[in-house]
Amino acid sequence: MTINTDLLNKATAFIWHEADLLDHKEYQEWLSLWDKNGLYIVPTDNNETDYENTLNLALDDADMRRMRVARLDSGESVSASSVSGTVRMVSRVRILEETADYVVVRCAMTLNELRHGNLVSYPADLEYRLKPTDDGFVIDRKVVKLMHADGFLRTVSFIF
Amino acid sequence: MSELIALKNISQKAADMVEEGRVHKALYSDPEIFEEELDKVFQNTWVFIGHESEVPEAGSFKTAFVGRHPVILSRDRKMNLHVLLNRCRHRGATVCEGRKGKTKAFTCPYHGWGYGLDGGLRAIPKVEEYEGVLDKSDLPLESLRHESYQGLVFATFKDDIEPLEDFLGGAKKWIDLFVKQGGGYPLKVLGEHRFNFPGNWKIQLENTTDAYHFPIIHKSFISSLDNATADIFDFLDGDGFVEDLGHGHSVMVMIPDLVDLEADLDQPIPERFEDLAQALRDEGQDEEQVKRLVRAAHGTGFNLNLFPNVSCSMAFFRVLRPVSAEVTEIQHVAIGGDGAPAPFNRKRMRLHEHFQGPMGFGTPDDGEAWERVQKGSMAGKDGWILVNRGMGNLHTSADGNVAGAVCSETGMRGAYQKYKQMMAAEGEK
């Protein structure tokens, strides 16, 4: 088995950059990482593939991403104000597919959230479809498969 | 509070904690009262467990709870529904796991006892050791009495309870209106969101008949809407109302224009539904049907609270389950039309995702408020929760019910009076 470590490094660097932006609530810059037709998806059923015709926890196109960020940044959401912070670890990065148009990457994430003094942990598989650009990538699709997606979650006032 | 604690009888204590315009804060956290509620409320009335569309075919099942009891809603080969306690009659293991699915039988994983979709005990491995000891026909999965109205399935532990339709009473008219949001198609469950919050179930019960909170806690949601839609949600000064429907049920009409989704079909299509209208036209729907589906896609302009555990809440079912005095699980069940054009159901799901569920633009802020109610209720030795808003401005509705302004707490008072009545009754052990 040959691993394209150059591509793996590039993809990993991009995903780490995104993770850092999200943990530090640099949401406007996060928005700029996306292709305009990209979709941010958090399914309720991790075996589902037809996201548009099923109910998801989130299925954000560009408009919804912009509104989600506006809500979190607005200062109007009391739950967003109560999130002390998130720290996410991303690892186990693997390139699943490489074509002329896309790189499909799967990795593991554990996100820890502190809210009202309580730590909550969210283990998840992340699946990215990244579109190569002249200076890196843009996100065409990001699917966050929470391990307990079909369980009773706590409410979420941050971005996975 | 000291006087209340002095009362030896727990049930009397809880009932005394409900006055006309206020309830004692200990009702949110006292574990003894919670146990009493499971007996006297949740085991003693009709409890919503799901919608018939969740078990569409022979062999379909879903799991649910009646209070603390895990149950299975199943559909047998003759298409009859059954509500079965999820407990093997041998050593007590659950015989069915997962949210929903299809099966031919319920088989206990421990020793292999097998039950039919109707709960009948069909198979016992190594049965010869039971010869002369037991008769299979004596040991089906225990079944609960259940009845449906407009596809909404309720179950009860109380065998001699009044028929479901009598229990629903004045709420039936509103359920009939609620199901019109299938857009001319039978209502169908499209999926659900699940979350919990560290607080008492009655905090959720209150919330779905509380219009007062909407523009305050949900300001960040309203800001995310276009102006025309934001205006629709600016309903506190409108002509809405809250009506006490009896039996603890109530309806809160926030948007009177959207009470009957099959009326006023000539209205222009709002901007935020133009994409849906075009998608429906592209599918060959005529303009009349486009308008009908677009109007249905809004959902209804009211919340119908059914005591004790479900609200038909504008465009979805909100189901609560009491886990402990200080933990409640909630399901936000998305609905659409069975056989309706795909763009219609897609739009319904996107609207649901926008506000509902753990990642919606509304629910997290509700959850934050409820968590704070629970936390704040621990402050002080004594204290009361006010539910007296609008008590000085009541009228009699066209249906002869007590009604108040849209942001009155009329529905909460109705629910708490039913609660008081049930908690004051002698427990059935």
Automatic annotation (TrEMBL), chain A:
<keyword id="KW-0223">Dioxygenase</keyword>
<dbReference type="InterPro" id="IPR000391">
    <property type="entry name" value="Rng_hydr_dOase-bsu"/>
</dbReference>
<dbReference type="InterPro" id="IPR032710">
    <property type="entry name" value="NTF2-like_dom_sf"/>
</dbReference>
<comment type="pathway">
    <text>Aromatic compound metabolism.</text>
</comment>
<dbReference type="Pfam" id="PF00866">
    <property type="entry name" value="Ring_hydroxyl_B"/>
</dbReference>
<comment type="similarity">
    <text>Belongs to the bacterial ring-hydroxylating dioxygenase beta subunit family.</text>
</comment>
<dbReference type="GO" id="GO:0019380">
    <property type="term" value="P:3-phenylpropionate catabolic process"/>
</dbReference>
<protein>
    <submittedName>
        <fullName>Biphenyl dioxygenase subunit beta</fullName>
        <ecNumber>1.14.12.18</ecNumber>
    </submittedName>
</protein>
<dbReference type="GO" id="GO:0018687">
    <property type="term" value="F:biphenyl 2,3-dioxygenase activity"/>
</dbReference>
<keyword id="KW-0058">Aromatic hydrocarbons catabolism</keyword>
<keyword id="KW-0560">Oxidoreductase</keyword>
Automatic annotation (TrEMBL), chain B:
<feature type="domain" description="Rieske">
    <location>
        <begin position="46"/>
        <end position="155"/>
    </location>
</feature>
<dbReference type="InterPro" id="IPR017941">
    <property type="entry name" value="Rieske_2Fe-2S"/>
</dbReference>
<keyword id="KW-0408">Iron</keyword>
<keyword id="KW-0411">Iron-sulfur</keyword>
<dbReference type="Pfam" id="PF00848">
    <property type="entry name" value="Ring_hydroxyl_A"/>
</dbReference>
<dbReference type="InterPro" id="IPR036922">
    <property type="entry name" value="Rieske_2Fe-2S_sf"/>
</dbReference>
<dbReference type="GO" id="GO:0018618">
    <property type="term" value="F:anthranilate 1,2-dioxygenase (deaminating, decarboxylating) activity"/>
</dbReference>
<dbReference type="Pfam" id="PF00355">
    <property type="entry name" value="Rieske"/>
</dbReference>
<keyword id="KW-0560">Oxidoreductase</keyword>
<dbReference type="InterPro" id="IPR015879">
    <property type="entry name" value="Ring_hydroxy_dOase_asu_C_dom"/>
</dbReference>
<dbReference type="GO" id="GO:0005506">
    <property type="term" value="F:iron ion binding"/>
</dbReference>
<protein>
    <submittedName>
        <fullName>Anthranilate 1,2-dioxygenase large subunit</fullName>
        <ecNumber>1.14.12.1</ecNumber>
    </submittedName>
</protein>
<keyword id="KW-0001">2Fe-2S</keyword>
<dbReference type="GO" id="GO:0051537">
    <property type="term" value="F:2 iron, 2 sulfur cluster binding"/>
</dbReference>
<keyword id="KW-0479">Metal-binding</keyword>
<dbReference type="InterPro" id="IPR001663">
    <property type="entry name" value="Rng_hydr_dOase-A"/>
</dbReference>
<keyword id="KW-0223">Dioxygenase</keyword>
